[in-house]
Write a structure and sequence with these properties.
Protein name: EngB-type G domain-containing protein
Low-confidence stretches: none
Radius of gyration: 21 Å
CATH architecture of one domain: 3-Layer(aba) Sandwich
Largest sheet: 4 strands, mixed
Organism: Blastomyces percursus
Pfam families: MMR_HSR1
Structural class: alpha+beta
Distance between the termini: 52 Å
CATH class of one domain: Alpha Beta
InterPro entries: EngB_GTPase, G_ENGB_dom, GTP-bd, P-loop_NTPase
Order of helices and strands: HHEEHEEH
Number of strands: 4
GO molecular function: GTP binding; metal ion binding
Shape: globular
Number of helices: 4
CATH superfamily of one domain: P-loop containing nucleotide triphosphate hydrolases
Length: 169
């Protein structure tokens, strides 16, 4: 019973913390401090690098923007050995079963390329999508959707993902 009360208190504490306004580094909130309108940059901290410039943000938006030539399905593989060789950079999305990896990729690509479902284990293969392609050219970056791990997953999927992560060059 003590564990349940402790968990309930933790949840209450987290909810109270979520209701408080975020504190901007270097400022101190008091009861008389008026509410501040925060924008996205107030939540982003850049310790090792500078914040992206407007030109860099525009370039990023251009790469991810859907067009007639992007995104495209590059390959689907149920086994590591069947993945075609490529010199394009790949970004792999990993996570628990039904955590929203495919939905996130659809949102990033601004197009429903990945199958989604409320049912666990919908994605059963490694699926690669090329983005940033222009007419007559190949994709600039490959986004890889993976099967989830945990409930609803298959042990073989995990083995293939580990092979992909450790052996893909």
């Amino acid at each position: 019973m003590a564990g349940v009360k402790s968990a309930a208190n933790t949840v209450k504490t987290l909810l109270r913390a979520a209701e408080r306004p975020p504190q901007i580094p270097g400022t101190k909130l008091t009861a008389s401090t008026p509410p501040t309108q925060l924008d996205l940059f107030d939540y982003c901290f850049y310790y090792d690098t500078l914040a992206p410039t407007p030109q860099q943000l525009q370039h990023s938006a251009d790469v991810f923007r859907a067009s007639n030539h992007s995104p495209i399905q590059m390959w689907t593989a149920s086994e590591f050995r069947t993945i075609p060789m490529s010199d394009m950079p790949e970004v792999t999305f990993l996570g628990r079963s039904n955590s929203g990896k495919s939905s996130l990729l659809n949102a990033i690509m601004e197009k429903s390329m990945c199958y989604t479902s409320a049912k666990l284990g919908r994605t059963t293969t490694l699926n690669a999508y090329g983005i940033g392609g222009k007419k007559g050219g190949e994709a600039k970056v490959v986004l890889v959707d993976t099967p989830g791990y945990g409930k609803g997953s298959d042990e073989e999927w995990g083995e293939q993902i580990i092979k992909y992560l450790t052996k893909r060059k």
